[in-house]
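pinging the channel bc i need a second pair of eyes. not urgent but kinda urgent?? the chain im working w is below, pasted from the shared doc
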Amino acid sequence: MISRDQLKLAIDAIDDTHLEMLHRIILAFRKPIPITSNLAFLETTNPLKGSITFENDIISPIDTLWEAEQ
């Protein structure tokens, strides 16, 4: 692990533009991660359950002529 003095020397060697970018990155990581209160509700209920139906194989080629091909 780097010592505090070594870190200070390394930061002093960085130009102002890069130092500003590092500062913004550090501030972005300090923001708390939002926690949704409905997470437990979503784990117990599935809003998409029953919304998809299976009709047959839709990937395999078929031998039926469509009106567009006539």
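so The first helix runs from residue 4 to 12. and The helical segments are 4-12, 16-30, 39-44. — does that match what u expected or am i reading it wrong
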